[in-house]
């Protein structure tokens, strides 16, 4: 992915902050929390949040696109 034209990689994680394993592995690979969508899913009697994580690829937003 780093050699392609892409600048950002996103991870959409269901069950928001209660999905500690997925969050931990994404952080290990350079992702950071970009936002949270609250109560966007309903499962087993509870509303669920979705966490959005983001990781820059290559220069990210530090340089202008060609």
Automatic annotation (TrEMBL):
Keywords, comma-separated and alphabetical: Transferase
GO molecular function term, any single one: transferase activity
Which species does the entry assign this protein to?
A: Klebsiella michiganensis
Q: Which InterPro entries match?
A: Acyl_CoA_acyltransferase
What this protein is called in its record is: N-acetyltransferase
């Amino acid at each position: 992915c780093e050699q392609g034209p892409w600048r950002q990689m996103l991870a959409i994680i269901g069950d928001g902050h209660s999905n500690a394993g997925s969050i931990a592995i994404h952080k290990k690979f350079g992702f950071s929390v970009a936002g949270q969508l609250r109560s966007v899913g309903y499962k087993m009697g509870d509303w669920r949040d979705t966490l959005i994580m983001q990781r820059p690829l290559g220069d990210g937003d530090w340089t202008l696109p060609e």
